[in-house]
Structures are given as C-alpha cells and as structure tokens.
Amino acid sequence: MKENKETPDRKRERLRQEELKRNPTGNLNDAYKRENIGSFVDLVGSFGWRGTGILILVTIIGFIILSIFFK
Predict the structure, then answer these.
(1) CA dihedral angle for residue 46, residue 24, residue 36, residue 60, rounded to 10 degrees
(2) Contact 14/6 with Cβ under 8 angstroms?
(3) Could you tell me if residue 3 is inside a domain?
(4) Taking the alpha carbons of 41, 45, 50, 51 in that order, is the dihedral positive or negative?
(5) 31 part of a folded domain
(6) I need a labelling partner for 41 at 20 to 30 A (CA). Which of 1, 27, 34, 67 fits?
(7) Residue bearing the bigger pLDDT, 41 or 1
(8) Range of the domain at 14
(9) Region (Disordered): which ranges (predicted)?
(10) How far apart are the two ends of the chain, measured CA to CA in Å?
C-alpha cells in the first residue's frame, strides 16, 4: 500500500482550494483585502519559525521604544 504523506503546506493549500471551490464569492472581500494589504499568514509562512520569532521580538522592542518616547 502506498501511503500519501501530505506536508502541512500542501494540506493547507488543498483545503484553501477546496474552500474556494465551495464558496467562490464568499472569499471575494478577503481576497481583495489580502491583495491590497497582504496576509499575515503568508508573511509568517514565508519566514519560518525563526523569522516569526524575530518579527515578534522586533515588534515588542518597537512597542517598548515607542512607549518610552511618547510617555
């Protein structure tokens, strides 16, 4: 027997494509917004876990610096 081992990325994409086939007009607004401002999921997915950690760290440090200057 052949086992189909699907990676999480492929599974996520397959599920997204199935949702688009089931409800093509329901995602129209989301697609429009994603096109203009981008998707956080896509950003985090492209970074990996290290890049995501660095992004969170930079966000926290930026918040601390802003709160010190605008106190």
Answers:
(1) -50
(2) yes
(3) no
(4) negative
(5) yes
(6) 67
(7) 41
(8) 8-70
(9) 1-28
(10) 65
For 12-53, the pLDDT digits (tens) are 888 888 877 777 666 566 666 666 666 666 666 667 778 888
**Cβ atoms 10, 18 nearer than 8 A:** no
Instruction: Note the pTM of the prediction, 2 decimals.
Output: 0.43
Structure token pair of residue 7:
């990676």
Domain presence at residue 1: no
What pLDDT does residue 63 have?
Answer: 95
Amino acid present at 34: R
Instruction: Write out the H or E segment, with its range, that includes residue 8.
Output: helix 8-22
The enclosing H or E element of 19 equals helix 8-22
Query: What whole-number distance in Å separates Cα of residue 47 and Cα of residue 1?
Result: 36
